[in-house]
């Protein structure tokens, strides 16, 4: 009897895992566009305040690109001495969105996957890093790249014994693209996101990357942030400070209406976390506190793009990264068509001296990655990402069909 029941449960599990979900090509393009645009705008909203607020959150909700309006708040700490505090001038000068590590390493991954395929190996991605990624990288990324010059090949470049920054934020902000490659295929998205995370990180330092990977992949079909958080919790190894932190954030969110209360609770417990033999090194760019404030922003943002990005930024720490990652998630969830008029307006009115006809002038300007085109239309990046996703859909049991005169994708999805 027990054998029969076990067999029945196994069959039910397989059926659940093989549930087909349908998305039109137009919808997929819209969501992938939201993914890229959402990351870019979030990056620029958070940029002026990157690494400035640690013990306390920013005293106001930052939900717009830095302008002279913030000069009316002299008590604010702002990165005024470099390009981070002058986004309107930079975008006007380069005539488009400009590259940063929140998006440009994913751009390298796109190039590498186009060359080697979705089953790209560690030696191949190491070669891609050594070709394209040489400057404008920090902490774990920088250490991994230095190790490559010494002959190390990923994942040895991320191991604790080799990379002293194995616990830092890096992988959660450069591996979101795997979820865009695997829409609705959570297991594949998280497996490949973890694969990418191990280039630079180890142990629980990879766990936020897994969580975001699961949520962004699921967000192609799921718009309830509470359900997305449950999917994230399920995807991450149960033991470890990040898993514990996610459970805390969910509990605190239910108990406290004000996100600032939860932010302080995160800081008090996890900025200097220690439990038994597990100790999280204190760092403004730690994957732990940054990952958890991003999770907090997703819950309190309730699916609204600017509210989510605003909380992610105002929570402080390495805030442009949380703003970019959560912005990409909400961009997938809502699609570019549903990201909100205010967000789209920020993307078109960002330049100092004029407005664009299209968000970010439909142009991604690469100022940071070697041997990659200087100027690439964002619409082209979106189409190339969709092309890779089509390959992933077919290779994982899905298919393309014509329905009512339009192309649809039937995805073998494992979203709970």
Summary tags:
three-stranded antiparallel β-sheet, disordered N terminus, three-stranded mixed β-sheet
What does this structure look like?
The chain is built from 17 helices and 8 strands. The chain has 416 residues and is mainly alpha-helical. Mean pLDDT is 94; it is low at 1-16. It is globular. The chain has a 3-stranded antiparallel β-sheet with strand order 1-8-7. The chain has one domain (20-413): ADP-ribosylation/Crystallin J1 (ADP-ribosylglycohydrolase fold, Orthogonal Bundle). It has helices at residues 2-17, 25-46, 87-94, 104-116, 122-132, 139-149, 177-181, 186-197, 207-218, 225-235, 241-255, 259-270, 287-301, 305-314, 319-334, 341-348, 378-395; strands at 19-24, 97-98, 274-275, 278-279, 364-365, 375-376, 399-403, 406-413. Helices cover 52% and strands 7% of the residues. Strand 7 and strand 8 form a beta hairpin.
Quick summary:
The protein has 416 residues and is mainly alpha-helical.
Describe the oligomeric state of these chains in a short phrase. single chain
What proportion strand?
5-15%
Q: How many beta-strand runs?
A: 8
- Widest sheet: strand order? 1-8-7
Give the topology string: H per helix, E per strand.
Answer: HEHHEHHHHHHHHHEEHHHHEEHEE
Low-pLDDT windows of residues: 1-16
User: Roughly how many Å apart are the termini?
Assistant: 27 Å
Count of individual domains: 1
Q: Enter the CATH topology name.
A: ADP-ribosylglycohydrolase fold
Based on secondary structure, the structural category is mainly alpha
């Amino acid at each position: 009897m027990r054998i029969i029941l076990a067999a029945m449960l196994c069959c039910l599990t397989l059926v659940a895992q093989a549930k087909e979900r349908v998305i039109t090509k137009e919808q997929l393009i819209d969501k992938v566009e939201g993914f890229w645009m959402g990351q870019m705008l979030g990056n620029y909203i958070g940029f002026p305040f990157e690494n400035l607020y640690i013990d306390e959150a920013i005293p106001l909700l930052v939900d717009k690109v830095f302008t002279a309006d913030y000069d009316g708040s002299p008590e604010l700490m702002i990165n005024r001495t470099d390009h981070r505090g002058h986004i309107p001038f930079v975008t006007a000068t380069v005539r488009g969105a400009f590259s940063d590590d929140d998006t440009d390493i994913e751009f390298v991954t796109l190039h590498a996957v186009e060359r080697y395929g979705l089953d790209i190996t560690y030696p191949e991605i190491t070669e891609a890093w050594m070709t394209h990624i040489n400057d404008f990288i920090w902490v774990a990324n920088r250490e991994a790249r230095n190790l490559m010059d010494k002959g190390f090949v990923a994942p040895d470049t991320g191991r604790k014994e080799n990379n002293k920054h194995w616990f830092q934020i890096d992988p959660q902000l450069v591996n979101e693209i795997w979820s865009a490659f695997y829409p609705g295929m959570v297991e594949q998205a998280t497996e490949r996101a973890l694969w990418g995370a191990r280039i630079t990180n180890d142990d629980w330092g990879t766990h936020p990357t897994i969580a975001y990977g699961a949520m962004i992949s699921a967000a192609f079909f799921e718009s309830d942030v509470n359900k997305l958080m449950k999917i994230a919790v399920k995807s991450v190894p149960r033991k470890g400070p990040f898993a514990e932190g996610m459970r805390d954030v969910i509990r605190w969110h239910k108990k406290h209406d004000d996100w600032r209360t939860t932010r302080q609770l995160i800081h008090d417990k996890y900025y200097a976390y220690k439990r038994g033999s597990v100790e999280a090194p204190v760092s403004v760019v730690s994957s732990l506190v940054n990952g958890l404030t991003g999770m907090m922003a997703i819950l309190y943002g309730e699916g609204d793009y600017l509210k989510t990005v605003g909380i992610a930024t105002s929570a402080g720490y390495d805030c442009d990264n949380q703003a970019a990652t959560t912005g990409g998630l909400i961009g997938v969830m809502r699609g570019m068509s549903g990201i909100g008029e205010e967000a789209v307006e920020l993307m078109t009115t960002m330049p100092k001296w004029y407005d664009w006809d299209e968000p970010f002038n439909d142009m991604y300007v690469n100022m940071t990655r070697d041997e990659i085109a200087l100027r690439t239309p964002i619409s082209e990046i979106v189409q190339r990402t969709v092309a890779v996703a089509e390959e992933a859909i077919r290779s994982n049991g899905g298919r393309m069909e014509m329905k009512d005169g339009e192309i649809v994708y039937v995805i073998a999805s494992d979203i709970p």
